[in-house]
Design goal:
The chain is α/β, with parallel strands linked by helices. The protein has 23 helices and 18 strands.
Length: 685
């Protein structure tokens, strides 16, 4: 009953009393809508006539039927009188008289015939009179409810402090009503409307998020009032597979639906035809708000496209994303592997930008991912088609990015965010709280798109623009109580949708097999890194970057990382009860002469010998080669601790050698203090 009244109020407020359209179709729809509440009495009159004709056909000569119909007439009249005791006296009497007259006529029609005199005359005259009496009663009731003589909408707007505001013709869609609104010139502004949204929702008995206001950018007193009477997000919708398998990354990515049932879509690449910019994306929300499933919605859509590769960092060891690992071009856990990935992204941006510029692309478009066979997009000076391999779009994703920001500094992504869009690279950052003490203001300003899930009310200003919050968006109202509920602000999304709640799809455990099949599809049919991107990444990451493993092959194994020999290793069955490094020592040989640092250490004094310069260079070069072979391209003094112990070298000596290697071009300083990136041997040469 409450839901029906709410829908009636919304319709009356924003549609029925308005113009209803200026064309003939609009007038017809308006009249039909107004006539609907008055049709039931007339339908009852017509149904009684049909029932009388059928009764006469069956019971015309039956005395028993006459007795039964008379008793039924008396009984139903009595029930009507009894049931109406909770209503007003006038309604009770009116209902009983109507039922008594209708049942009496029906009895006479069944026995004497509906066309017999005077039964037929009574039907043609008395029936319409009773129906009209109910229509009049309805009209008088609505008039009494509005004794002030104002429209229903005026009564509501007056209650919320907008008495002189004017509503225009409403646009009615399934579960969504939109009406233009203009406040009094010189007296009120759009800010007054946004402050009244809570009171409007209260007057309509709706949640606050169901009422929004979209100001007109060209006016300070005009906008659109949007009301969504029913929350369609309460029902959980499960993920059943990608929306466009084999499509382009330039096509919309469907990740859920809005509260009125419309699909929730985002775009990553730009579109020069529609003037849509390429974008970076922030996924933000508190613990339990549904960030993981929201990320799965987006990542599965990305991996289902034919012209994109994904570099993905996850400090949680891909806890949520492991079924999709085979489809990723580069997967890095947190710590050092992520540092290498960040350095590689910084390196590929100028390389990709140079390739796009040389082939006549002002920004990445799907044609750039195909082999270059056009004269319009050639890098040859003579203008003939160059035939260069295409360059797929690159998505660089940093899950739980707060971990990376703590390790590398709050501006770790600043350069990428500011420069990557022109290179066909999209940055996706996911973290709980994008506050300014975690992420630099420059980085945050360079992330124009956001999926804002439930959060602490105090964090709303970190995730959504002020104008979207003013329009009615309120992610702090959800917290972690409604996983997957979100607001989306992104290029390509209509601005009037920014403040519309949406919900991403759920990923139950039965979705895992489908995700695994999708990852296998991406292995076989997805794009591979182009030579420019792969070359720039390898020049920085060395063996840490291998590209996507082809389907049907095993992941290449890497040598064991540098470490000390443990006691348990010495006890393995290797045929000798000695440490492996002592197997070549002749027990009968004379001990070597003492070297500097071999003496017994004094408390607080560092131990370890200092080798000759030639031996130092050889040992250190060997260590860097071992790190590079293992794919560990970011090093610092702490990474050499086991190595120093194994070679009996001092740690201070290692620090000096790191600086010398940087001067020689074998190492490069990173943003993190005391951390160095290894320049691959071929690149250094």
């Amino acid at each position: 009953m409450v839901e029906r009244d709410t829908h009636r109020q919304v319709a009356e407020l924003l549609e029925l009393q308005l113009q209803g359209g200026s064309d003939a179709g609009g007038v017809g729809r308006y009249l039909l809508h107004r006539a609907k509440p008055h049709l039931p009495p007339w339908l009852a009159w017509a149904g009684t006539g049909i029932t009388g004709a059928l009764g006469y056909w069956r019971w015309a000569d039956s005395a028993a039927a006459g007795v039964g119909l008379t008793l039924a007439s008396v009984a139903i009249t009595g029930v009507t009188w009894w049931a109406g005791k909770s209503t007003s006296q006038q309604r009770r009497l009116h209902s009983a008289i109507t039922v008594a007259a209708g049942s009496a006529w029906l009895t006479a029609a069944c026995l004497a015939g509906p066309t017999a005199h005077p039964v037929g005359d009574i039907y043609l005259m008395g029936g319409p009179a009773l129906a009209l009496s109910w229509n009049i009663r309805m009209v008088l009731r609505h008039t009494t409810d509005n004794t002030s003589g104002e429209g229903t909408d005026k009564g509501l707007l007056e209650k919320v402090g907008l008495a002189r505001a004017m509503l225009g013709a409403a646009k009615v869609e399934p579960n969504r009503v939109t009406a233009p609104l203009a406040v009094e010139a010189g007296e009120q502004t759009n800010d007054d409307v946004t402050k009244s949204l809570g009171r409007i929702a209260s007057a309509l008995d709706l949640p606050t998020s169901a009422v929004r206001y979209n100001p007109d950018p060209a006016s300070s007193r005009r906008g659109e009032l949007v009301i969504v009477p029913e929350d369609m997000l309460a029902e959980v919708v499960e993920w059943e597979g990608p929306s466009n398998l084999g499509g382009s990354i330039a096509d919309p990515l469907v990740i859920g639906r809005y509260d009125d049932g419309a699909p929730l879509t985002v775009w990553l690449p730009g579109d020069p035809e529609t003037k849509r910019n390429s974008t970076h994306l922030l996924i933000a929300g508190g613990t339990g708000s549904g960030k993981g499933e929201t990320a799965l919605n987006l990542l599965t859509e990305i991996l289902s496209r034919r012209d994109v590769i994904v570099w993905f960092s996850d400090p949680k060891a891909f806890q949520d994303f492991r079924p999709l690992l085979p489809g990723l071009d580069w997967a890095a856990e947190g710590g050092t592997p992520t540092e290498v990935l960040v350095a590689a992204v910084e390196a590929v941006i100028p390389a990709r930008t140079g390739w796009l510029g040389a082939h006549g692309y002002r920004q990445w478009v799907p044609e750039a991912a195909e082999q270059q066979t056009s004269r319009e997009h050639t890098c040859r000076p003579d203008g003939r088609p160059c035939g260069c391999p295409g360059m797929p779009f690159l998505v660089t994703w940093f899950e739980e990015a707060a971990n990376t920001l703590r390790k590398m500094g709050d501006d770790a992504f600043t350069g990428i965010a500011q420069e990557a869009r022109s290179a066909g690279v999209s940055l996706i950052v996911s973290l709980q709280r994008p506050s300014y003490d975690q992420m630099s203001t420059s980085t945050r300003a360079s992330l124009p798109s956001v999926i804002a899930l439930g959060c602490d009310a105090r964090d709303e200003g970190f995730v959504l623009p002020d104008e979207v919050l003013a329009a009615g968006a309120h992610p702090g109202a959800w917290g972690n109580r409604r996983p997957g509920y979100c607001y989306v602000v992104s290029p390509g999304v209509p601005e009037d949708r920014y403040a519309s709640p949406a919900r991403t799809r759920a990923f139950p455990s039965r979705a895992v097999p489908v995700m695994e099949v999708l990852a296998q599809w991406a292995q076989r049919n997805g794009a591979s890194a182009d030579p420019v991107t792969a070359g720039a990444a390898s020049a920085v990451a060395g063996n840490a970057y291998t590209g996507r493993t082809p389907a049907g092959t095993e992941q290449p194994t890497r040598p064991a990382p540098l470490r000390m020999v443990k006691e348990d290793d010495a006890m393995t069955d290797n045929g000798l009860l000695v440490d492996p490094e002592d197997t070549d020592i002749d027990p009968e040989a004379e001990l070597p002469d003492a070297e500097q640092g071999d003496d017994t250490p004094i408390f607080g004094q560092e131990t370890g010998r200092k080798p000759s310069p030639e031996e130092a260079r050889r040992l250190f070069a060997q260590a860097l080669e071992e790190f590079e072979t293992n794919g560990q391209m970011i090093v610092g003094p702490k990474d050499f601790m086991d190595w120093c112990d194994a070679h009996h070298l001092s740690r201070s000596w290692v620090s000096l050698r790191l600086k010398e290697a940087a001067e020689e071009g074998r190492l490069e300083a990173t943003n993190a203090t005391g951390r160095w990136r290894i320049i691959p041997a071929l690149a250094a040469a």
